[in-house]
Q: What sequence folds into this?
């Protein structure tokens, strides 16, 4: 049995220590000391993510309900002075007062905490909130003050100790003698530290690969955060139309399709009509592109797209869900992310032949693109995109790799024109810009 107090103490050490190495060692020491069957739940408890983001689960307890539970257990209700306070600290003080009154305190099993919190997310239907609160009260009543602090924070998914993905990768690397960069790559391909920690322990970290139906973290595109920047037109690059939709990964494995947002949320169910169309594409694959709602030849606002993926039992509007495919990350057992963009795009175009239709007229289509080294051609395409109300262009280096979870140094979002000026050696360059935000 691993006492949950050991997990709580490790989190407290991360919060308290100043040096990054000391923070990582506090977590690594805990991980290397435990039995392998406890690695997955413990890594998830440390990270505050008790299930992968693509699982259709939610805790269903927000700050208000958690505050009510703490207030009920304290016998004082939730006071006005507690509003805005850290609920983890309030849970600590509540249990501390109870412990002083009862003269009893015992540690809880970490796996019991893990199972009970997941059980909270399992509650559905009439009376589910009451059952959720009852399970949580049981956990807090049996917890020490420090345990209660981090149980409360785990419920909200906010550990507030500074244990982010990079530091967690360092800790796993230290625990099992693996390079932190390799752990980070594994997490980018399979974003679940529970599975990554277990793979590192087993010596299988190099075997973590991109494959459907598990989504990878999205690559981020470069941007200038509000400042003008030049792009020299020295050699060809691909300029793909950015329609202004929601970035998605579309996976197909055998006879199933999965659609994920950039937050790795599974939105296949509300987009089942789009998934049916994707089923027509042969093979197993992972494609990236934009989810759009098209109505009357135009694109609906992003707020409508968000509303569609949040659809829960309500009737769907008349807009047609569409997928503008722009990249190919995996194809029939072949991981494509280390191939150049030009090769990925060539295979994508070939694979969609006979299925993809005209842009904004079909449910599945290939995002429009021009490969060019001519500034005037690029300016024309950019103006065309902006005039139609689209989001501009994405400049893609033809040799550029896809780096999950990292910001690309070569691929850039373009949504403003500030003019064309002469470049060195007679070459021209376009001065372009993009506002902050993705």
A:
């Amino acid at each position: 049995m691993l006492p949950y107090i050991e997990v709580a103490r490790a989190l407290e050490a991360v919060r308290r220590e100043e040096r990054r190495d000391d923070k990582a060692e506090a977590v690594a020491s805990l991980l290397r000391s435990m039995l392998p069957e406890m690695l997955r739940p413990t890594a998830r408890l440390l990270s505050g993510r008790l299930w992968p983001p693509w699982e259709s689960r939610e805790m269903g307890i927000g700050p208000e309900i958690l505050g009510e539970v703490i207030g009920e257990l304290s016998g004082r209700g939730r006071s006005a002075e507690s509003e805005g306070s850290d609920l983890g600290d309030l849970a600590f003080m509540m249990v501390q007062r109870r412990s002083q009154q009862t003269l009893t305190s015992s540690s809880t099993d970490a796996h019991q905490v893990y199972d009970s919190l997941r059980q909270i997310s399992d509650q559905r239907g009439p009376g589910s909130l009451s059952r959720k609160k009852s399970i949580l009260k049981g956990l807090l009543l049996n917890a020490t003050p420090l345990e209660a602090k981090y149980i409360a924070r785990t419920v909200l998914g906010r550990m507030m100790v500074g244990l982010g993905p990079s530091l967690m990768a360092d800790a796993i690397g230290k625990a099992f003698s693996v390079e932190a960069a390799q752990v980070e790559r594994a997490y980018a391909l399979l974003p679940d530290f529970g599975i990554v920690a277990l793979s590192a322990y087993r010596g299988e970290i190099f075997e973590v690969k991109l494959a459907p139906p598990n989504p990878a973290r999205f690559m981020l595109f470069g941007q200038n955060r509000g400042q003008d920047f030049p792009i020299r037109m020295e050699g060809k690059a691909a300029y793909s139309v950015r329609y202004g939709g929601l970035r998605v990964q579309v996976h197909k494995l055998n006879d199933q399709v999965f659609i994920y947002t950039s937050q790795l949320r599974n939105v296949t169910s509300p987009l089942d009509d789009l998934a049916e169309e994707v089923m027509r594409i042969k093979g197993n694959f992972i494609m990236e592109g934009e989810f759009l709602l098209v109505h009357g030849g135009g694109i609906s606002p992003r707020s409508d797209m968000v509303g569609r993926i949040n659809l829960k039992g309500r009737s769907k509007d008349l807009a047609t869900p569409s997928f503008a495919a722009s990249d190919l990350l995996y194809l029939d057992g072949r991981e494509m992310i280390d191939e150049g963009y030009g090769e990925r795009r060539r295979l994508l175009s070939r694979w969609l032949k006979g299925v993809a239709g005209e842009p904004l007229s079909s449910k599945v289509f290939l995002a429009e693109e021009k490969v060019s080294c001519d500034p005037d051609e690029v300016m024309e395409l950019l103006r065309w995109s902006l005039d139609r109300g689209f989001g501009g262009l994405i400049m893609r280096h033809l040799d550029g790799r896809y780096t999950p979870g990292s910001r690309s140094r070569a691929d850039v979002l373009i949504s403003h024109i500030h003019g064309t000026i002469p470049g060195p050696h007679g070459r021209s360059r376009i001065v372009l810009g993009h506002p902050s935000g993705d």
